[in-house]
Amino acid sequence: MSDVPVYMVVNLKVTDSEEYLKYEKGFFPLLKRYDGQFITFDDNPIALEGDAPRSGRMIIFSFPSEQAAKDWWADEEYQALSSYRRAGTKMEFLTMIRGMPQRD
């Protein structure tokens, strides 16, 4: 399973844009360090169905493997940087979803 991509799905609410901007500035170089790819974000997601529609920012990014995602998360520089995210947002969730293996 280590050769399947993983997707990170995030829902947060920005509460202090200055603190969050510090996080954003450092996020992309660290994402690239682990071969991550930023896919998209949306500040106004549209809920079509469900009991708990999401509000706030939805973010999706990916890594080529579960190990790369775990290494990114465990990176000391990332954890230090994430203090700005924690100070500037209310995190609803950050979830790792495993991709499908390639079909032959």
From TrEMBL:
Transmembrane regions listed in the UniProt entry: none
Domain (DUF1330): residue spans on this chain: 6-94
Top-level division of the source organism's lineage: Bacteria
Pfam family, one: DUF1330
InterPro entries on file: Dimeric_a/b-barrel, DUF1330
Protein name as annotated: DUF1330 domain-containing protein
Species the sequence originates in: SAR92 clade bacterium
